[in-house]
């Protein structure tokens, strides 16, 4: 366990020292949120409801982007031989994957907190203190499956391909999951699909909180299912990379 904790701290420091991650990983979701909610908007209760819902959606989008982006760093490490060094340590594959996943989960916080701060300080979103705290905790924890997806891509793909695939996953999951636009505007068949996507249920953790309710059982079940899928994919990819390196 001490080795895993040291590994987590190392990866967190490496990520947070990257200026590109701080500028684009946190700045882009905030910029998109402010543009979406302040161009052509009104000042009525419906406008504030939209700003609150969009705040949650864009915070989820920023956290999702930082989570899957973990895989890009892994792919680069793989090309530099860092993963071969990890394989000679006592840590088994599951601990390595879990350690990288926990490190990736920490790095979602800057994007998440930045969007929530923009909602409260710029757009005037008002929530109870417990609701703000619940938003942070639930969205932070809910980003873990996407970190595992990014990790799986990083171990499975080349450095050049991983970045492209991660961006594609981010865009597809965000749009179909309703992080940018409400799924109520989708055709019926697409709305049904969206309700079972991990991104939609991820954001629902926050949307439920802003309504003063706990996430329902379906949301928890869908996220748990995707956690198992992406976690298995990450472990499989790590083991496969060990055989092909």
- What fraction strand? under 5%
Low-pLDDT segments, ≥5 res: none
Give the topology string: H per helix, E per strand. Answer: HHHHHHHHHHHHH
Helix content: over 70%
Radius of gyration: 18 Å
Largest sheet: none
Number of domains: 1
Mean pLDDT: 85
* Intertermini distance: 26 Å
- Summing up helix and strand content along with how strands pair, one would put the structural category as mainly alpha
Protein model, in words:
This protein has 245 residues and is mostly helical. The chain has one domain (2-244). It contains 13 helices and no strands. Helix 3 runs parallel beside helix 9, helix 4 (70-80) packs antiparallel against helix 10 and helix 7 packs antiparallel against helix 8 (129-142). The longest helix has 28 residues, at 217-244. The protein is globular and about 55 Å long. The model has no long low-confidence stretch (mean pLDDT 85).
Give me some keywords for this one.
245 residues; mainly alpha; 80% helix
A few lines on this structure:
By secondary structure, the chain is mainly alpha-helical.
Secondary-structure topology with pairs:
Elements: H1 2-16, H2 19-38, H3 45-68, H4 70-80, H5 82-87, H6 93-106, H7 109-121, H8 129-142, H9 144-156, H10 159-176, H11 188-194, H12 198-210, H13 217-244
Helix pairs in contact: 1-6, 2-3, 2-7, 3-7, 3-9, 3-10, 3-12, 4-9, 4-10, 6-9, 7-8, 8-12, 9-10, 9-13, 12-13
